Structure formats: structure tokens, C-alpha cells
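Whiteboard transcription, Tuesday session. T.W. wrote the C-alpha cells on the left side:
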């Protein structure tokens, strides 16, 4: 006969919870009129084509939705990618100078 309690305990032990590591990133928010700022931030990785803003990413070129408020992020490996405003604001918090010192001590 199968021991249901033992099977359940085995399944529960396989499931683990994780939390994202604190990772320091840099980002510029698109305002609808700051394409030059995006270029200054990301260099040749950002370009305009047929009215759309693109960025070279690790996975290939990514087209921005041209939504005011979305972010261009520079990741931990120096890679660039776009992030929708609502996701960015749920995931990241802007640091002041004092916060940066605390965050940098985590690495």
C-alpha cells in the first residue's frame, strides 16, 4: 500500500522558495521626448528605425513599445533591455546616495 503521507512530505521537500538577490542596475525612463538621453546612456545599442526605438540585447534586437514611462535598463553584465513601467516599479526602487552605500555592501 502507498504511504500517502510520506509521498506528500517528499513532494513538499522538493518545493523551495527563493528571493531575488539585490542587484544594482542603472536605468533611464523614456519620457517620450528624451531619445537623445537614451542614446547617451546606451550608446550604439539604441537606434531609431521606422519610428520605433530598438535596443541591442543579449537575445537580439528588442523593439520598445514607445510607451512613455517605460525604462531602458543596463543590467549587471552591461547588457541593455527595455522594461515596462509597471514591472519596473514593482521590481526596482530608486536609491539615494545613502542607500547605494548600503546596497553595495551586499555584494
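and on the right, the sequence the group agreed on:
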Amino acid at each position: 500500500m502507498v504511504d500517502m503521507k510520506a509521498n506528500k512530505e517528499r513532494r513538499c521537500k522538493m518545493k523551495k522558495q527563493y528571493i531575488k538577490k539585490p542587484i544594482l542596475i542603472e536605468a533611464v525612463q523614456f519620457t517620450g521626448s528624451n531619445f537623445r538621453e537614451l542614446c547617451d546612456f546606451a550608446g550604439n545599442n539604441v537606434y531609431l528605425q521606422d519610428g520605433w526605438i530598438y535596443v541591442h540585447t543579449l537575445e537580439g534586437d528588442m523593439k520598445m513599445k514607445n510607451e512613455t514611462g517605460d525604462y531602458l535598463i543596463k543590467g549587471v553584465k552591461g547588457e541593455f533591455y527595455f522594461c515596462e513601467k509597471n514591472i519596473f516599479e514593482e521590481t526596482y526602487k530608486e536609491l539615494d546616495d545613502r542607500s547605494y552605500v548600503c546596497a553595495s555592501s551586499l555584494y
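Someone added at the bottom: The beta strands are 26-29, 46-49, 52-57, 60-63, 71-74, 80-83.
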